[in-house]
Description:
five-stranded mixed sheet, 51% helix, 15 helices, single chain, alpha+beta
Amino acid sequence: MRLRTRLALAFAVLALVPLAVVVPLTLSRLRTTLSRELEARMEGATTSAQEGLERTAERARRAVEELVESTAMEDLAREARERPTQAIQAGTAEGLMKSRSLTVLSLFDREGITLSSGHLPARRGDPDPALFAVTLQKAPKPVPVRVSVRGDSGLREIPALVTARPVDYGDSRLWAVGGVLLDEGLAQHLARLTQAEVSLLSEGTVIARAGSATAPTVERVLPLGDAASVHLVFSRAAPLEAERGVINAFLLMAALGLGFSVLLGLLMSRRITRPVEALTDGARRVAEGSWEVQVTTEASGEVGELVRTFNRMTSELRSTTERLMASERIAAWQEVARRLAHEIKNPLTPIQMSLETLLAAQSAQDARFPALFRESAGVVLEEVDRLRRIVDEFSRFARMPKPQLTPVDLSELAQSVLSLYATPPPGITLLPTIQTGVVARADRDQLTQVLVNLVKNAEEALADKGGSVRVRVKGTQTDAIVEVEDTGPGIPLEHRSRIFEPYFTTKQGGTGLGLAIAARILQEHGGKLEVGGEPGEGARFSLILPRDM
């Protein structure tokens, strides 16, 4: 018999048994329970709405801080200092705003003049006192203000959650004030979150409304400073309807059926929930990685079919996972073998040719044999050294030790590495820009290996035409950063997604492991290695590590 049929029969029996003896007490308790449930639902929905507003504000804060800390803003601040009238155009803020999923963004100078506005481009060159006033509050979290935006009917005031952050470059300062509008989209989000009717009001005017609530209703208000308020309207129709339904049902029941219905409910619930609990426990263990789980509880009908399907699934999942892991191991070893064979095969050809030349000269008693020997020996030694370097790089990549983390002064480390290049090749200039006191927890030897590799790559990129290599050490509140930037040809955009992959290289004779090792070292340090720079104008590699405060 199907589970649905069993439940229908059980509830039919319960509906036919009168419960008149317990009607008064049950109705009293029911009203209390429904009232508490409604209050709890409203309290939970209000809390959810408050948390939703806080999450919206937090996303806006993070977006503005990420924008301010981005290289785009740093470049913009630098250009604004060097070319005040040309660096920031009318559409600058709009592009930055959309890239960070913001709906409000204005760039101000020190005096509060709008340099660019993403939400109201026409404001450029004019003051915006309401929005610029946020810079004076120094609030860590976004604050509610009314923002002017242009709609179909002209300018209108819409509340928004905004925050302000300065962008300094030298003695120049810009202000980025950004956030999100409290508009129809937010109202719909809060309505879905709370299952209530949500209205956003500003100065008594409804800005946006979403959801619906059937009368009679109860209202809760969330104030957002002087700028706006959020009104949550909850319907009491469902609890009242449930109460009327229960009263009607109780009128059809008899008191003698109460004990029978309770006993029957307990027996059925126990029989039904036992396999469900076993399935829940099995699913939890599968989620923890135990692929061999099998549910052995007895069950029939749809629940029994579900148990059998679950057992088949775990069996197939275990075998599929084992096959996949075996295939991945085989593929990995095949790739290593292919790369090793390819890299080792290239040096063997000149070694073979050199030896064949020596054998032919020796057999012919050629008088040039000593000179040929010296020349061929040099070639053989060079190729043998190349083979050794190839094997060493593969060995380092395969057996990289676990980093031993200690506090490392990155400014001192950078100066130590640069001392190795005190006399760079002709035409190449080293330009250190080092901020002192930047400390990170790192393995000094591994970090030195990464930095030496990056400086060496930068010099190789400048081998043909010369140029400059700038090593920059700087720190933020959370990150310690070392940048190696050159003025070489740069890295094409199509290569950047693969540049840190093992065995990927564009250099003649390269193994493609240098940057892969560097990226892996940074990853095991809890940091990351990023590549930047414009193609054709140079490359910039950034080592980013958690700062040791």
